C-alpha cells in the first residue's frame, strides 16, 4: 500500500514527506497500525544525525506512535482490528531479560531496533524508484501514517482517553515514570531530586508525586521549566546556574540527604552532585549516559546505588495501561507536556525542540507531538 512518511534521505538532512510503499502481506506476528499521532524524541534526531548507532538511509524514524489496529498477522492474539494501541520498544520475548520481565534490556534489542529490516532480512518499505527504505525503527517507524510493527511492540489501551496524546508513553514518559516507580520504587513520605525537568524529568516528577513522595526537588537551568515543575508537584526548586545542587539540598532542604535522585543530563559533574545529594542507601538512576568516562568519587557512593535504566525498566503491557489509569485518576497529567504539530510541520517541531533543548547539552526525550 501507499503510505505517507517523513523520510530521512541522508545523514543530518531534514525530514521529507514522501509517498512510499509498504508491503502489507503481514508475517504471522506482525500488526499494521494506522498511526494517529507520534511523539518526537531526541533519539530520533541523534539517529538521523548518524550519532550513537548507524541506521541506513533512506529511512523512516519515529518511535513514540499511537494508533488503531488495521490488520493483524495469522498468529496475533493480543490485539484485533479496531483496538487502540500504544507502540512500545522492541524486544524478543525469548532471552533471559525478556522472560524475567525486563524487556528493556533484551539481548536482541539492538538488532530489532536498529537493523531497519525484519529479522529474516527482508525490507517492507520501498520508495517510488524501488529502492529499500529502512523501517521498523524501534520496531515501529511511526513517522508515517501507517506503521508495520510486531505483536510484542503493541500495547492495547483503553478507548476512553484521547489516542493522540498516548504515543510518548511508549518511550519518554515511561522512561521518567518507570525510573521512579519501577527502579527506585519510591514510596509515600520519601524524598527525591529530579535533575533536568524536560519531559522525561517531569514524567518522573509526576510519578514521584503520585507515589506519595513528600519532598520533591526540581533542578534545571531554566526558570520557566522550574515554574512548570512547581505546578506539577515540585516542593522545592533549584536553578543550578546560580546554586550548587548538593549544598542547597544538604543545607537548606533536607540535611542528611534525600532518598532518590533522577539524573536526565548524563554529565559527570551533575551525577556527582546527584550522589552528594543522597543519604546513605540512596538510589541514583541515570536515564542517559554520555560518551565521556563516568568519574565518581568513591566516598560519594557510600552505601548508595547508582544505575542506568532503559525505558524505566518497564513491562510496557502492564506499565503503560497503569500510567493511563493514573492519568484518568488525575495523578499523572502528562497531557500538560504535549504540544501538537501537523505532520507536514515535522521539521518545525524539530527546530522548536532543538531551540528549547540544544542536543549537545541534553539528550533526552521530548514531548513535542505531531498530529496526523
Ligand atoms: Zn529479549
Ligand atoms: Zn525515545
From TrEMBL:
<keyword id="KW-0862">Zinc</keyword>
<dbReference type="Pfam" id="PF08240">
    <property type="entry name" value="ADH_N"/>
</dbReference>
<dbReference type="InterPro" id="IPR002328">
    <property type="entry name" value="ADH_Zn_CS"/>
</dbReference>
<dbReference type="Pfam" id="PF00107">
    <property type="entry name" value="ADH_zinc_N"/>
</dbReference>
<keyword id="KW-0479">Metal-binding</keyword>
<protein>
    <recommendedName>
        <fullName>Enoyl reductase (ER) domain-containing protein</fullName>
    </recommendedName>
</protein>
<comment type="similarity">
    <text>Belongs to the zinc-containing alcohol dehydrogenase family.</text>
</comment>
<dbReference type="InterPro" id="IPR020843">
    <property type="entry name" value="ER"/>
</dbReference>
<feature type="domain" description="Enoyl reductase (ER)">
    <location>
        <begin position="19"/>
        <end position="350"/>
    </location>
</feature>
<dbReference type="InterPro" id="IPR011032">
    <property type="entry name" value="GroES-like_sf"/>
</dbReference>
<dbReference type="InterPro" id="IPR013154">
    <property type="entry name" value="ADH-like_N"/>
</dbReference>
<dbReference type="InterPro" id="IPR036291">
    <property type="entry name" value="NAD(P)-bd_dom_sf"/>
</dbReference>
<keyword id="KW-0560">Oxidoreductase</keyword>
<dbReference type="InterPro" id="IPR013149">
    <property type="entry name" value="ADH-like_C"/>
</dbReference>
